Amino acid sequence: LLDPKQFNWGVRPVTSIAMTDKDYVEAKGAYDGRAWLGDVWTMRNLPIIAGLCDIGRHDLAAELNWSTLRAFNTNYTEYVVPSTGSGEGVARYGWSASQYIQGMIEYLFGVDYNRELNRLRIFPHVPPALFGQRLVLERLILPTGDDTRLRVQIDQAEPGRAWIELEFEGRIPEGRVEVWLPADQRVPTKATDARGDTLPLLLEGDDLTNVRGVHLKPAQKLSVRFE
Length: 227
Description:
Mean pLDDT: 95
Strand content: 25-35%
Strand order of the largest sheet: 5-6-7-12-9-10
Largest sheet: 6 strands, antiparallel
Low-confidence stretches: none
Shape: globular
Number of helices: 4
Helix content: 10-25%
């Protein structure tokens, strides 16, 4: 997967088959079926990102997600040519646009609201290219049954160290709020709240590995600093 000669890693998102395969081709123009034999699709890359998260390779998930967002930013085409990045097929492809939004909300900012479990999870996957920059997601609608809006602000300077702030408009979600960060073994992480009080640090979640995180009671404003 990480060999750029096979799947173009580090250049653009992952190709639909290996570039070394005898059937590999870079299709252009209208869809004729060949684009599944080489071109870049969001619907191939999003499951890979999810799989990398599942095995605890959050660093690679962040890198591939950011690569996918860049490739399809203002370029919501059906698929992208690996060598040039040009968008081909349908010019305004709803699947690509929706998965671009998914990559932004669910992976870059890491918002996962589960009403059945009464759980709001924030688990950002910030790539090194965005370290030192303030990332803000404004007025995201949460399906609480009321007009709940969420603001997420992330300031991450390096692996294992970040300041994450949450603010709600409208009804505050019931249940539990979880805030996580990918673990970095070089950083002896601790977590503190807005007052500087130490929070109990968790080393794993229900379905998360290679992480550090905290559980919080819902409130209008929440703040966690990992350092």
